[in-house]
Design a protein that fits this description.
- The complex is a heterodimer of chains A (201) and B (222).
- Chain A has 201 residues and is of the alpha/beta class.
- Chain A has a single domain, classed as Rossmann fold (3-Layer(aba) Sandwich).
- Chain B contains 6 helices and 6 strands, in the order αββαβαααβββα.
- Chain B has one domain.
- The N and C termini of chain B lie far apart (58 Å).
- Classes of the chains: A alpha/beta (201), B alpha/beta (222).
Chain lengths: 201, 222
């Protein structure tokens, strides 16, 4: 009898802990290389700590942490697939100073400004949605300003039985990252300041 | 004797329920705008539309239609959706995919896109757009667990409605050659007398198989 009570108590405690804990989601996905024309430029890429370690926390209606979504590494993987398809040469640097010493054509530094998650339980829609707002910076080899523009990406995935919320969040984030890759790679040369700079080369 | 009649009645009621549950009504509408036909070395790619804000065409449904077209008599070579989208990246993403044949015409001026299309041997692009919706949920089921055993009692029912449009683009002529619409509805039941017995109407599966058959005939030009 004592054994049964103990088992029941352990099960209840486990259930309580599961219900209260934050779910960690590390975004993972594969990103194809874009089929676009390369620009004859060598670009240094600088990922700052804020991007490398980017994580978003979604809070429940009661204010407790519900999901901790880490997407810094997946962003680096994404740019790793996209940038070599856009430029002849891409060098990842640890600091802006290091890039300046390399004598590249430009320095690119992406940043995540905002991350939003919409869960079906809150929106009453049968989709998980993710919005991400970026600030893209392009500098000369000397670190002077070329362009600074905002990009937004969006991804959604429908709710499915037998799929966890974590897996759905990951799927929506991968769609959002692909959306970033497509809009960034296709609109890069259309950014007015970038266009002006390219015309001077 | 009375007991036997009662049993027969219950059995008949259950049989009726099963037969009702198996009943799915499927309507297919075909609208042809141009001549079709396909050679053995050509293929078809089926893509799901994902532009709507509140739903998106499920990739499982797209896959199901593709598998249906690739089987049986007059089967057609189908390019898997994800393989095509990845190979064409970033031109067929939700934000960049062509919405009209005019957009496809513009897209085909990109050498990379035209080359990939030739590599796959794509003759037709089929755009699938739609979703399956569950409505009219009614009834309730209660389950009890006690030291003596467990069981569920009650009755539940719901209706599923699958509505999909398949728009067919001819890559050779860069034109819209037709649209096939399918609408399937069916009622599902879940009676529970100790054990729940799901009697599910295969609405989406029926919509998929009818649409695949019709698309196959359409593309073959028959």
């Amino acid at each position: 009898m004592r054994g049964r009570t103990r088992t029941a108590l352990i099960l209840m405690a486990a259930l309580y802990l599961t219900a209260c804990g934050v779910s960690n989601v590390v975004i993972e996905g594969s990103f194809p290389t874009p089929n676009i024309n390369k620009l004859p430029l060598t670009v240094a890429v600088y990922y700052d700590a804020a991007l490398r370690e980017f994580a978003y926390i979604e809070y429940s209606e009661t204010g407790t942490e519900e999901y901790n979504i880490a997407s810094g590494q997946s962003h680096i993987e994404l740019f790793g697939a996209v940038l070599p398809a856009m430029f002849d040469g891409v060098i990842v640097v640890a600091s802006i100073e290091e890039a300046q010493a390399l004598g590249v054509d430009a320095i690119f530094a992406p940043n995540i400004e905002e991350f939003q998650l919409a869960l079906p339980a809150k929106t009453k829609l049968d989709v998980f949605e993710i919005w991400i707002k970026y600030n893209m910076r392009l500098m000369t080899a000397e670190g002077d300003y070329i362009a600074d523009w905002v990009l937004t990406s969006y991804g959604k995935t429908p709710t499915e039985s037998l799929r966890s919320a974590e897996a759905a969040i990951n799927a929506a984030a991968v769609v959002a990252l692909r959306d970033l890759a497509s809009s960034f790679s296709l609109s890069f040369t259309e950014v007015p300041e970038v266009k002006d700079w390219l015309n001077t080369l | 004797m009375k007991h036997l009649i009662g049993r027969n009645r219950l059995g008949s009621a259950l049989l009726l329920l099963v037969s009702l549950a198996c009943c799915t009504t499927t309507t297919i509408d075909e609208f042809r705008q141009g001549e079709t036909g396909i050679e053995s070395y050509e293929s078809v790619v089926i893509l799901g539309r994902r532009q709507a804000s509140d739903y998106e065409t499920r990739s499982e449904f797209v896959k199901c239609v593709g598998e249906g077209m690739a089987q049986g008599e007059n089967s057609i070579s189908i390019v898997p959706e994800q393989e095509f989208i990845d190979a064409m990246f970033p031109w067929f993403e939700p934000r960049t995919a062509p919405l009209r044949t005019r957009d496809l015409e513009r897209l085909m001026t990109e050498a990379v896109v035209a080359d990939r299309m030739t590599e796959f041997g794509v003759r037709y692009i089929v755009w699938l757009d739609g979703f399956t919706e569950t409505s009219d949920r009614s009834g309730s089921i209660s389950c009890v667990v006690s030291p003596g055993g467990a069981g569920c009692f009650g009755f539940g029912s719901w209706e599923d409605d699958a509505t999909y449009d398949a728009r067919v683009w001819d890559v050779n002529s860069l034109s819209d050659v037709g649209t096939i619409s399918t609408d399937a509805t069916g009622q599902s039941y879940l009676p529970a007398f100790v054990i729940p017995i799901p009697l599910i109407a295969r609405v989406e599966a029926n919509a998929c198989s009818r649409l695949a058959t019709q698309l196959k005939e359409f593309v073959n030009g028959s």
